[in-house]
Write a structure and sequence with these properties.
- This protein is mainly alpha-helical.
- It has six helices and two strands; from the N terminus they run αααβαβαα.
- Strands 1-2 form a two-stranded parallel ribbon.
- β1, α4 and β2 form a beta-alpha-beta unit.
- The chain starts with 15 loop residues before the first helix and ends in a 5-residue tail after the last helix.
- About 4% of the residues have low confidence.
Length: 128
């Protein structure tokens, strides 16, 4: 259907201080000259800057219900095996050739029927 739009991408929630730290580290470690994925270049820059104390000096938490396969080889099969794929917040990684199949799996059941409180308990912050 040409009238429907899909949005792809990762969502990170951060405060102003975090954005400043990421920007400063990106510039200091010249990530614009790195080859490869930008998110990994930022992580390497931050880890290099803070060293072994990164988790204390610059902590982060993951949240949300996720399917995470950095190779992208099993993302769709994992989604198919989920009892409630419509309640998954994000999928990583989805190759272009698998996006249509993934959208069909998720939209087939309609919107997630769990309450916000239930989802937060099921998939809330998972560490620092």
């Amino acid at each position: 259907d040409g009238n429907k739009q899909m949005v792809h991408g990762s969502v990170w929630v951060m405060n102003t201080r975090a954005v400043t730290v990421l920007l400063d580290n990106a510039a200091a470690y010249s990530i614009d000259r790195k080859v490869g994925y930008g998110d990994l270049a930022v992580q390497v820059a931050v880890d290099t800057h803070f060293g072994a104390h990164r988790n204390i000096s610059f902590p982060w938490s993951e949240f949300g219900c996720t399917i995470y396969d950095n190779t992208g080889n099993t993302t769709v099969s994992q989604a198919r095996s989920q009892p409630e794929p419509e309640c998954i917040d994000w999928f990583h990684k989805v190759p272009a050739e698998d996006m249509a199949a993934l959208h069909e799996i998720v939209k087939r059941r309609g919107p997630c029927r769990r309450s916000r409180d239930d989802l937060l308990q099921l998939c809330g912050p998972s560490g620092t």
